[in-house]
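for the recovery benchmark. tokens below, seq after
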């Protein structure tokens, strides 16, 4: 391949948590800042989640970027985070100990004051700032008959301003329902892009190791273009017929300004959506009539790199992703910036 691996940033760090207290001004360079989440390990063996900010322009200019710790706390899965357009606030999807749920925390980057925007018994993912005050999130309730929804919150008033039932967004096949939606971190022309996952209501079976396995088919169905100003669906296209996207909620796809997609998928087609131990990255484009996808190139796992996660484009020329590397029984997590200019032109 002609792609050139630019650099890898190791963001898994092990040192005294109390030794880190660095402030970064995000107000004037928000478009260049990349957020990377990981965990910190103290000398007492207590792990905490952590979010670092780093300037990608430092990297592209041949310098090693400085990692700024913008938040630490919590002990759940790696948090998801997004900086407000004005660079003043960071919204974090992280574990709320009091609710035992993945809720939304708002942090003032200047004062370091923080508060829970949501604090209910639900899970909230896929944070996206609509402007400096309005925050879009995806809400998954714990209760059995709860409503999967897109919520719009005002961080100034701390109130829910709008809630959209996901089943009202798109018509799904008979005997099925929307199981999940999965947002891309990027937007194009004020449009957000998400994948709708559907789940059929009838069990099917397949043979695995000479045994019959029953399952409810759950798979990506449509890619949806969603206008962030009027909160309406403006376009849809069928998901590429590879049906091996790992099960959300995780950041497993993105779209570049030129319409190129990056998907993290399972290596082979699968019957059931899952969390594979190994996966790969596919960079794809829609054909002219938007009826099918063409694979431009793939990034497969290697002998040491076994898993990819969290893809994001920076402009049309660079793809950022994280990778899990295993060498000599030691695990390391890297953030990688990959040049795709020669491949997609």
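predicted aa per position
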């Amino acid at each position: 391949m002609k792609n050139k691996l630019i650099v890898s940033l190791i963001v898994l760090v092990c040192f005294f948590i109390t030794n880190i207290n660095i402030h970064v001004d995000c107000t004037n360079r928000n478009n260049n800042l990349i957020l990377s989440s990981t965990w910190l390990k103290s000398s007492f063996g207590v792990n905490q989640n952590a979010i670092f900010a780093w300037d990608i322009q430092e990297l592209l200019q041949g310098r090693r970027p400085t990692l700024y710790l913008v938040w630490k706390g919590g002990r759940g899965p790696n948090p998801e985070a997004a900086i407000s357009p004005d660079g003043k606030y960071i919204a974090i999807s992280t574990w709320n100990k009091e609710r035992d749920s993945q809720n939304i925390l708002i942090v003032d980057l200047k004062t370091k004051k923080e508060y829970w925007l949501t604090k209910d018994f639900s899970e909230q993912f896929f944070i996206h700032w609509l402007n400096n005050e309005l925050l879009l999130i995806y809400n998954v309730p714990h209760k059995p008959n709860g409503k999967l929804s897109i919520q719009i919150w005002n961080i100034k008033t701390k109130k829910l301003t709008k809630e959209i039932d996901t089943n009202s967004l798109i018509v799904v096949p008979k005997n099925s329902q929307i199981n999940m939606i999965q947002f891309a971190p990027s937007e194009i022309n004020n449009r957000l892009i998400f994948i709708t996952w559907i789940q059929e209501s009838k069990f099917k079976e397949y043979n695995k190791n000479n045994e019959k396995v029953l399952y409810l088919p759950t798979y990506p169905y449509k890619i949806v273009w969603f206008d962030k100003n009027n909160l309406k669906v403006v376009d849809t296209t069928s998901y590429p017929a590879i049906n091996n996207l790992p099960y959300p909620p995780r950041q497993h796809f993105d779209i570049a300004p030129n319409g190129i997609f990056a998907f993290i998928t399972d290596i082979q087609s699968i019957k059931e959506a899952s969390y594979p131990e190994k996966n790969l990255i596919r960079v794809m484009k829609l054909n002219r009539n938007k009826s099918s996808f063409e694979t431009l190139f793939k990034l497969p796992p290697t002998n040491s790199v076994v898993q990819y996660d969290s893809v994001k484009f920076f402009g049309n020329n660079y793809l950022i992703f994280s990778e899990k590397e295993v060498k000599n029984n030691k695990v390391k997590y890297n953030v990688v910036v990959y040049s795709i200019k020669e491949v997609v032109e």
